[in-house]
Amino acid sequence: MRTVAAIAGVELRRFLRDRSNLFFVFVFPLILVVLIGSQFGAGSSSGRVVISGADSSLRSALVAELEEADVTVSYAAPDAASEQIARGRVDLGLELTDAAAAAFDADEDLTVVVTSSSSGGAITTRQQVDRALNSLQLRLRQEAALVGAGADPAAVDEALETAGSQVVAPSVTVTSESSVSEAFAGASGFTVGASAQVLLFVFLNSLAGSATLIQARKYRVVARTLAAPVAPVQVIGGEALGRWVIAMVQGLYIMVGTALLFGVEWGNLALSTLILAMFAAVAAGAAMVLGSALDNDSAASGLGVGLGLVLAALGGCMLPLELFPDTLATVAHFTPHAWAYEAFAEVTRRGGTLADIAVELGVLLAFAVVLLALGSVLLRRSLARAI
Amino acid sequence: MLEVEAVVRRFGDLTAVDGISFEIAPGETYGLLGPNGAGKTTTISMIAGLLAADSGAVRVLGEQMGPSRVAGKRHIGLVPQDLAIYPELKGRENMNFFGRLQGLGGKELATRVDEVLDLVGLTDRAGDPAKEYSGGMKRRLNIGIGLLHRPTLLILDEPTVGVDPQSRNAILESVEALSGEGMAVLYTTHYMEEAERLCDRIGIVDSGQLQAEGTRDELIRLIGGLDRVRLDGSGDLAAAADALGGLAAVEQVDADRTGLSLAVRDAPTAVAELVTRATAAGVTLADVEITRPNLEQVFLHLTGKALRD
Question: Which 3 state secondary structure label does DSSP give A150?
């Protein structure tokens, strides 16, 4: 066992000693967690709106409604506003013309020009803007109705305020019928992005790191290792353990880092770690297969990155699995990522138990067994090639 | 200490090693000479237990060698021809890793690593990554790793390839010192002078077979063992040839326009008498040159090709 641990230890040391890994292992994952988390995590929907048009009662009333809905409002001249929209710096632009402001003051119908950007938050922000405009419209109609019924226009505002303060707002409970919104319910902050990035980087960096297996053969270190009182099975065990430890270090780093920096909640820690451990075993097996099948370390590194990205995208690590069309979702389940993603979702968002993720863990175990077995056979053959 | 008995190893239709046999005694340095593709590395791989022999046997201190036989490997220190080190790891880290594979650990490992670093002159650079070492330093690290567990048989596969003269000399001195301490050494090289300097016995390998084996002098005797002496001068060269041809040490004399060429036994001893007789016969000598047969000539004689072909 000491020999196996020594081989695993030296693999981890080499992985951490590689300076090019520092960015891709320790910095890049956290950046992506922020990006994806801000897109899909709950609380990430506060929109950004730029308003062009002179100060007016219409503008004040609309801004008050938008800010109450947590929308960030900025002001710009029409040209500057257009540029911000075109560059996606804001989700929407609202043009409040002088005519619209005058119509608002005269309690008449008015037109507001809304321009959407191509940003991901444009649709959600549009809903918030529509809700604010509807609210203003309702207020106008209430005032018109009171004036039409003979009320003093000067007293209408005060009367509506008084009435509003005396009416107890009805309690409305909304039950979501949307599977997507249900899926993300309970996903606080960056949870969605964090679990996806754990899977993406554990697998991708494991595959890219498979190049060290080839280098060990190239450096003739394998021959020297086998000339020591070491059985080939110990070398294979050490290499497998080394790959698994590397994958665990990567995964645990993202889990701990996102918990500390972004407050990501990982649910039951024992279960989350178990999912990671199982997925790391799958990644270790895949790395052994790649590093044993190829003899060119640059090719293995490049192929590893490519495969890692494709499988991650297919497995729900770039766009959440819940947003996949049915066919693509079915295809996604040929990747281990999708199973691990669902297991993480169950534990982190819905407080799932071991029984709830038993199927996912079982599938991951099957992936791991098959890949580790295949990797061991191929590695044994590659060791013979190295002598 | 090492017994190699009629080992054969085939790769498909190619018989890389074809019935090689030799032995090495404790404290003996044995040189294995042969051109590229002669079967040296395959033979070494079988001795080190990396490859299984198709037939024949290799035993180290009575232990059978083979890929799955661990016991015998404890007695062997292998220094491969290629630099078998992790370049991104520090010198000390490389030694710690391979020391652990040899079963060393804790204080014993730390002490031994310090000793070997000192032995190979890398103590000051032990904390630097191996990739920052010069070629000679890497070679010394490569050799040091093979010595960590105090092997009884050290296998050095062309350890001085690509090494500067100073490091090369340091390596040769180290091998001489280790041999002096009783370690058996199996040494392969392309450099004939290294074999002549270090090896007690030499085996010449070609086409997977051991062509000849013995001490340097025994091998030279295989090709007649005569030294060549050239006497350049003027005068009565024919008379001198007659006078010298009668000496017991002289096997052959040829006179030409500028001097005499002789085939002589033990030229360093006989040369004074040759000069005296030639001068007495009326020759004025301008130059005397002795050429002794070396292993290169033996190799050429046995295999029909130069060692570095």
Answer: coil
